[in-house]
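Support request, please re-run this one:
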Amino acid sequence: MFTTVLVPTDGSPGAEVAIAHATELGWTYDASVHALYVVDTEAEPTGLPTDEREELRAPSERRGREATIRVTDRAEDRDLKAAREVREGSPHREILEYVDEQDVDLIVMGTHGRTGADRVRLGSTTERMITLSDVPVLSIRLSEEPEEPDSDVGPYDDVVIPTDGSDAAERAAETALDIAEKYDAAVHAVYVLDTTTYALEDAPRSIIGLLKEGGRNATESVADMARERDLPVTTDLRRGVPADELLDYADGVDADLIAMGTRGRTVGSGRLLGSTTARVVRRSTVPILSVS
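Re-run finished. Output below.
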């Protein structure tokens, strides 16, 4: 499924864990690993002479070379084909362009978790990639500590697949099940009856029954797909705040990976990431595979 894995990197020590996941999947799929660093020129003062602009960018370019070499060294340590590049421009635009040019079929990148009721959106390059990318994005929570974290990652033994029966959820399930099959992983399909949308205490029993039936059908559909691949599978129905319930469920089954479908909604000229996916990506310590 994956033949070319891209690691957009910022060179921070915490990015090592994202590199480790990229090389792990690269090794499993015998995929090439590409490293990309983008010198962000969007915040530069306008009208600078060429020599001053080059002087301003020089430290970032050096950092980019060092960061991308770290990725390719890790890939080559596992006998994987590797490539690296440093570009200038808008980070998310340059990443999307690189994905198209190199036929990338998986992006692995880190994200810094944010908390608080006012953090509705991630507000990061990672969020933009999850929202805009046509290929799956594996987002990894980066360490906030200054020291370099343990960058060893093990196999994906337990894969959680939240589903609502939508086409996006089905696409995420198909991708996640391919990974699960590679690792002979246990699959956990879960549906959350959203109490933030439905006033369940006041809703007729017939409505609740239909919602539960839809949840059972959705999880059983994923379970059937898993059984076709001879994978062990469990299903569960929950009710509550979706992000809270999904994170609690993933913790309970000791998940190594959560796969979620994304459904961008258009506002003005741009799409916004679905709120549940955004909250899970922001808070999860487990890698999130987002599939559009």
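The CA atoms of residues 49 and 55 lie 10 Å apart. Confidence is low (pLDDT under 50) at residues 114-123, 264-272.
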